[in-house]
């Protein structure tokens, strides 16, 4: 096992990894920017090192500063958490070149799945079902028109790099394909420095289903079921649940087996998430996230598996502590992402929190670095807390969620707590009858 782990992240993610380290009796180091000097992870870590000013580029993305923190503290492993450098293949290679362990997948898998065009080719070779579209990158509008004649409309023009909905445009007909193609390329170039795009069929009412997989260095691969992540705004997830209310038991087993087998064929190591669109009984692979997911707690709640603990064990060279047959799915879990955003305009609302009370009671888990007197900085992602609720079944879980949302207090800054209170009363949520377009095209328009 490692002698000391350096955590290159912030907020609730850093706190989550820190807690796993403490339970494994591994000393931890948290790096931080000057804006996060008073954060909860910094207060609770065994050691902390300031690596730069508030700007992410000068702190959490500053590889030389991170390596200096390693040299100062004597850490022998780095956990990248979520975001920042967690899916940076170059960083993973640099870490290994310095004789350290990167607690994550091998660089080749990060690189292959980080480029959506290469990811599609890799996925196809691993036997995953794909959305019909271009076999690779599309470089000209003439090429796009030829492919559209085979695939049909509507078409989605997608950036090969990046994510979060940027560099994605819909072409309803051939008449607006050129406009969508040029707009997607320009946005991709601006956001990611790479204007490579590809085409795929635009699914009108799909659900977003993802499967959690985990693999060790001994060839053992296990899936931990699926998560429903269809409640999204601008391709950003707000509300997730496990298991999906839209799948049957047979469909659940089917997609889990497909994801496991593909992970095995890839020779993958560590935790990962296979993401699919599901429509009319068919699954289509869209991407693989080669890191821990923000929504991993709901999988932990229905399986009893500590994913971060297992991630660290695997990176240290130990085998998985369970087999597929050991996994029992029990109950239902939902996660609400509480963001420092106005619940109607979604504008960021950084500022000082003067009153904070986390929900509690049976089946309630809160992951947050908030405390009364904490100032939410304006420099980073607006996620400030995750409310995770588990129940015996979905009805029980929703009842607990309503109660937990009423208990949760974050004041005076506006947050998405009020949005979630409205969400749980919507008929589509109660019935589990929603898709990735429902929030924006139905719910928010009715409010």
Helical content (DSSP H or I, runs of 4+): 25-40%
Overall pLDDT level:
95
According to DSSP, the number of beta strands is 20
- Rg from alpha-carbon coordinates: 21 Å
- Overall shape: it is globular
Structural class, by secondary structure, is alpha+beta
Model description:
- With 447 residues, the chain is of the alpha+beta class.
- The protein has helices at 11-23, 40-44, 63-73, 89-97, 107-114, 116-125, 141-151, 177-192, 249-266, 296-303, 307-315, 394-407, 417-423, 427-431, 438-446, and strands at residues 5-7, 28-33, 47-52, 77-79, 101-102, 155-159, 168-171, 197-201, 207-215, 221-233, 236-242, 270-279, 282-289, 332-339, 351-352, 355-357, 364-368, 375-376, 383-391, 409-411.
- The chain folds into 3 domains: 5-103, Rossmann fold (3-Layer(aba) Sandwich); 132-201, 2-Layer Sandwich (Dna Ligase, domain 1); 207-446, ATP-grasp fold, B domain (D-amino Acid Aminotransferase, Chain A, domain 1, 2-Layer Sandwich).
- It is built from 15 helices and 20 strands.
- An 8-stranded antiparallel β-sheet has the order 13-12-9-10-11-14-19-17, sandwiched between helices. Strands 3-2-1-4-5 form a 5-stranded parallel β-sheet.
- α4 (89-97) links the parallel β4 (77-79) and β5.
- α4 runs antiparallel to α5.
- The protein is globular.
- It starts with a strand and ends with a helix.
